[in-house]
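step=predict obj=S9 family peptidase n=631
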Amino acid sequence: MKNKIKSDLKKIKYLKLDDFFKSTLVFEKIKMNVKKNAYENKLFYYENGKTKKISMDTDFDIVRLFSSRVIIYSAKKRQVTGFYIKNLDTKDKKLLFDIDYEVQDFAVTDDKKIVILVNEKDLMVNNETKVETTDLNYRFNGSGYVAGSAGRIFIYDLILGQLKKVTPKCQNVDFFNLNKKENKLFYLISDKNNLYNFNTPYVYDLDKCVTKCLYDKKDFEFTFVDYIDNKVVAVATNFKRYGLNENPKFYEIENGALNLYLENDYGFENTITSDVQYDQVDRFLTIKDSIYFLSTRGDKCSIYRLINGKAELYFDELTSVSDFVITDDELVVTGFKDTNLMELYSKKTSIDGKKTHGKLKKITKLSKKFEKSNKIYEIDKFKCELNCDIIYGYIIYPRGYDKNLNYPGVLYIHGGPKMVASHNFNYDLQLLSELGYFVFYTNPHGSDGLGDEFADIMGNWGKIDYDDLMNFTDVVLKNFKQIDKDRLAVIGGSYGGFAVNSIITKTDRFKLAIAQRSISNFVSFYGTSDIGAVFTSDQLNTEYDFEKLLEFSPIKNVDKINTKLLIMHSEKDFTCPLEQATEFYTQLKLNDKDVKLIIYKNENHNLSRTGSPKSRVQRLSDMSKFLTKNL
């Protein structure tokens, strides 16, 4: 099976949209090279219905279009980052300048300036031998230790050949948005000692070189700011009603005050789970009098737009839109259509971009090789009532399904919990189907896509969601008689891993369980996770109270566990730290329980999605071996 997994993952490709200019789009195709244990990127441009590869003789990080035929890109070079310019017609390339920082993002203005967001590090407090900090937030999953580092904005003038600092060292910039029409730069300043991520929006006039603070109260988290209809409109939330998972709303910023512009009950991002999507972005695109954005509603992620003070649906022809751009005459999107793998699609638009028309066209055929050698799983979608709400359930049939035979079943629980499981493709589910299992899953209370109230389970972790999952399992077993109720497994990761740990302390209905990147002890999670203090107090609806936190913790009830358990955890997971696995494992061993622990070296919380290719193969192989041997 390991060789089959390796062969499959080599055939799966990913897409990343880099930039667009008028009718030209630059994008990347990404694939895994298992032998080299690396991801390989190839650059392409799309124009007039055709794609063409861009030959790159050096590595590249971030790519932007300077014009329809010229790109500017950054590349790391030992201690510096180089900026290069390349003509797509002549293939000529030259170095523009070097900058002594790690570059996080950049954008090109219409008057030949480059806005650069860098990560400035203080080597006195964070170097090869030590990390020294006075910050509350000093490490993040995937980034490692961030003590002594801060985001800063620089502007490089291509005509004058000069580099200028825009933000001071004492400020930490974590977002910027360039409005080319107004030649103004919006950016957000955050505080590493703020428990909640309240930040401050600024605007910088690129013509006058003047900075203005737009709102200084530090009682909202902003995620986007721009001009629309001569107003400054922001996406923000204050967490007051539903806590950390409260969906943002549109606000107008005027004279230092924040006024509600549009009520909203849904998020501004794609929260549909996928293990074959390399990079997830929160795309906002301002065109004239409209802001276009992604939003997950129900079990679909579609494109919506804000226009005339209202949010309306713009495009919903895919199950899950990952990213999009609107060129002069086309909407171009990456995403998943039903159980097909990710592809690039396009649809014609009106001159002003306000309407799409004609048929949806598939530009790429990335999944052709994978689908040629694999039969994609069959899936059914059905409605069921859980805790007075009607939600969707999904069931995947085992490969070679025969209605006259019985099969093992797997309850698969997504992470978050504010995420959405839909009918898009996931390789985990493909593998489980190939192994001969029914797979069933749903979106219990706490999930996204059904509004703030449904997503709110503050103080109810392991309670209402547990009831949902058990009732859902009852519904599945009642309606699919071919599932052997004595051969059930439960699998989950992150929040889903917590759910697995919690479930097996309360019921013995599952023959075996797999907990990945899980939580077992909220007492220790509170102080060791990169989100621990704020997430724990918010989601469990309690401050640091030993007894209350322990009540929510599966580790308290290890003596009640009779289910065979596999714990899978990454060594450098800073969101659900490794000690969550080792504490639980130790207590289970001391209580003479049937448990196995696997630790993946040098991997983090995102192992199943963006981990190194060899580790991803190993994880899937370990999971399949455990299931095959014991189920």
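step=describe
The CA atoms of residues 444 and 469 lie 7 Å apart.
step=end
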